[in-house]
């Protein structure tokens, strides 16, 4: 099911919703791309990148790049882009988290930044071979780790997670507050997919575990890479077959049903706070439902 036929009105954009650059995987086998005269380089440390002139990425030349692990990002606007991974971005480069920059950057730069951050987090967290413990070597322009001892190849890891807006028979939406969140902050439910589990079953299991509700129909809505550190958020709409909520009191502190009018009033009156717009797919799911038909 595509976003356009979700049944909940017009499409609403969110950060990282699609790749804008050509990753040029066929160029990763050697380092000749480093010789491109117009090469633009982004320094990456954790989830932080350099900035300049407010909400803009600071790109540097190859000669200006610090020591670190290189990776090819690909081509955008006819120019080759790369990243160099360091432990920490220098303070004089005005490092800023990509989470903060997400709603401020243009889609082309954001596409490159999220690729760089995802790969940087993986490279920094996978330094030793899971098979024999030997320190790994970087290959394929930063997109493969190899073990010189046992020959194992380690590819970038992505953890699938489902995130879902659940509605009931009256088309009310279920929102919940995580136990670790401040009072008043609400969002959709979410959870990681377990091994051997279909995505739709993960949606039903997570909802049952967290709020005690059975879910029938589940439909795919869209996806969003979320490299903090390594998730792929798979968005769904689901229809509960009962309405009595029973929170687990471990992960979820409170959950409640909202009509569209109730949610609009609660947000407008600052009774609750939703995820920021244009950043997380959770807000997009909520906005998509809000823009749909009026509740019966």
UniProtKB/TrEMBL annotation:
One Pfam family hit: NUDIX
Keywords carried by this UniProt record: Hydrolase, Magnesium, Metal-binding, NAD
Annotated protein name in UniProt: NAD(+) diphosphatase
Enzyme Commission no: 3.6.1.22
UniProt cross-references to InterPro entries, sorted A to Z: NAD-cap_RNA_hydrolase_NudC, NudC-like_C, NUDIX_hydrolase-like_dom_sf, NUDIX_hydrolase_CS, NUDIX_hydrolase_dom, Znr_NADH_PPase
CDD domains registered for this protein in UniProt: NUDIX_NADH_pyrophosphatase_Nudt13
Record-level GO BP terms: NAD+ catabolic process; NADP+ catabolic process
Catalysis: reaction(s): a 5'-end NAD(+)-phospho-ribonucleoside in mRNA + H2O = a 5'-end phospho-adenosine-phospho-ribonucleoside in mRNA + beta-nicotinamide D-ribonucleotide + 2 H(+)
Domain Nudix hydrolase: 156-287
Cross-referenced NCBIfam families: PRK00241.1
Cofactor: Zn(2+); Mg(2+)
GO terms for cellular component: cytosol
Top-rank EC class of the record's enzyme: hydrolase
Family matches, as PANTHER family: NAD-CAPPED RNA HYDROLASE NUDT12 (PTHR42904:SF6), NUDIX HYDROLASE, NUDC SUBFAMILY (PTHR42904)
Family: Belongs to the Nudix hydrolase family. NudC subfamily.
């Amino acid at each position: 099911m595509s976003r356009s036929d979700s049944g909940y009105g017009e499409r609403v954009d969110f950060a990282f919703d699609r790749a804008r650059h050509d990753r040029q995987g066929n160029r990763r086998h050697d380092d000749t791309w480093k010789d491109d005269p117009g090469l633009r380089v982004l320094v990456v440390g954790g989830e932080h990148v350099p900035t300049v002139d407010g909400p803009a990425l600071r790109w540097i030349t190859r000669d200006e790049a610090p020591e670190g692990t290189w990776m090819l990002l690909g081509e955008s606007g006819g120019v080759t882009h790369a990243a160099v991974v360091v432990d920490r971005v220098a303070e004089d480069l005005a490092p800023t988290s990509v989470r903060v920059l997400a709603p401020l950057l243009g889609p082309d730069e954001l596409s490159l930044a999220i690729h760089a951050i995802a790969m940087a987090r993986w490279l920094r967290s996978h330094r030793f071979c899971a098979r024999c413990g030997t320190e790994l070597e970087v290959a394929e322009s930063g997109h493969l780790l190899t073990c010189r001892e046992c020959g194992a190849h380690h590819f970038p890891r992505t953890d699938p997670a489902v995130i879902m807006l659940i509605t009931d028979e009256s088309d009310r939406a279920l929102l919940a507050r995580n136990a670790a969140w401040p009072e008043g902050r609400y969002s959709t439910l979410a959870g990681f997919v377990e091994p051997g589990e279909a995505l739709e079953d993960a949606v039903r299991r997570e909802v049952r575990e967290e709020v005690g509700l059975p879910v029938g129909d589940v439909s795919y809505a869209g996806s969003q890479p979320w490299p903090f550190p390594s998730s792929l958020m798979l968005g769904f709409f689901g229809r509960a077959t009962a309405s009595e909520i029973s929170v687990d009191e471990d992960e979820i502190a409170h959950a409640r049903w909202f009509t569209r009018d109730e949610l609009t009033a609660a947000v407008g009156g600052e009774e609750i706070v939703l995820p920021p717009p244009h950043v997380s797919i959770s807000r997009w799911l909520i906005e998509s439902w809000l823009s749909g038909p009026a509740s019966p």
